[in-house]
Amino acid sequence: MKHVAVPYDSEESFVTLTVPRVRSALDEGRRVLVVTGAAKLGLLAAALGPDAGRIDSRTPAAWYAHPYRMLAAYHDYTRGRPTLVIGEPAWTDRSERDLRELIRCDSVLNAALHRAPAIVMCPYDVRRVPEPVVEYGPVIHPVLLGSDGEVTSTRFVHPQDLAFDDDHAPLPAPAPDARIVRFTGRELKRLRQSVGDYARAAGMDHDLITSLVISVSEIAANSVEHGAGHGTVAMWLREGELICEIADPGGALDDPLPGYIPPEPESPRGYGLWISRQLCDLVDLRAEDGLLRVRLHLRTER
Questions:
Q1: How many angstroms separate the CA atoms of 123 and 44, rounded?
Q2: Contact 55, 32 (CB under 8 A)
Q3: 233 - beta bridge partners?
Q4: Beta partners for 274?
């Protein structure tokens, strides 16, 4: 996989930088997907002429709304076929947390797609995107494209080494009013019932309750099978989210990108965190003093 940052400062430069790559990809027989706003799609269509009918497109709202699911979408789309993806998220109006996770997941593409015959170009308008997008562009992309062509980024950091300021800070303690449930292998059914009851009492949408129960059950089952064999779940509400923390006194983190990359089909492990990231809005992990804490965040309403 070739992962290219494409900073631009005008609509003209966007077209100048992307159109030749699209034409080249089409000539090579690549499948081409463009994810950007309607105005940019119109500019590309005008510049490509009849070739515009040969490209696929998605809206940023659909492709990038959930950073973890974006990883799955890229993985599925690029699997087994030479592909060019030009992907431009709608970066504005995101919370600091969502902005960080989307940047992190963009970085993870370097590992998730490293064997894929894909080119991923990530354009961003330096006049309008939040400052972290400009700051981290050369950090998460090994290649930079500008008016003088492609150059290797001297600031590139591999995804397993990328760290934001709070990544290694201890997680805050659960809320004082958190509901605590202890579990062993014999009590996973009761645990699922307790999580579902708490979520219903909190007014969570039915489909979201299912997502939360599945996620907690997957992580707890991992603790039973691969950790200490028992643990605790703390549940509390904060600012429109239901938060569940599964604490495993025998857990450890041996994967530098836990749950970000789908496990291989034949793998007996690794599904729990992958599933939880797909279903939850945020998954935080910390391993401290022999205790693995997996904290799941899910909005109570869609």
A1: 13
A2: yes
A3: 181, 246
A4: none
Long-range contacts of 144-151 (CB under 8 A, 24+ apart): 144/4, 144/5, 144/7, 145/4, 145/5, 145/6, 145/17, 145/121, 146/7, 146/17, 147/13, 147/16, 147/17, 150/4
The fraction of the chain above a pLDDT of 90, given in percent, is: 88
Chain segment 198-251, per-residue pLDDT in tens: 999 999 999 999 999 999 999 999 999 888 999 999 999 999 999 999 999 987
Q: What does the alpha-carbon distance between residue 218 and residue 258 come to, in Å, rounded to a whole number?
A: 14
- The chain-wide mean pLDDT, for the chain, equals 95
Nearest to residue 4, comparing CAs of 145, 206, 211, 148?
Answer: 145
Q: DSSP readout, 16-34?
A: HHHHHHHHHHHHTT-EEEE
Q: Give exposure, 153-170, as e/b (b: 16+ Cβ within 10 Å).
A: beebbebeebeeeeeeee
How does pLDDT run across 60-96, given as a tens digit for each residue? Answer: 999 999 999 999 999 999 998 999 999 999 999 899 9
Q: Which CA distances in Å does 93 have to 61, 64, 65, 96, 248?
A: 12, 13, 12, 9, 36
Contact 248, 223 (CB under 8 A): yes
Q: pTM surpassing 0.85?
A: yes
Report the alpha-carbon distance of residue 270 to residue 262 in Å, rounded. Answer: 8
* pLDDT 10s digits, 259-277: 999 887 666 666 889 999 9
Contact 190, 183 (CB under 8 A): yes
Closest by CA position to 97, among listed 286, 239, 261: 239
Residue 80, phi-psi category: left (phi > 0), alpha (psi -120 to 50), beta (remainder): left
Task: State how far the Cα of 235 lies from the Cα of 181, in Å rounded to an integer.
Answer: 8
**Percent residues over pLDDT 70 in the chain:** 98
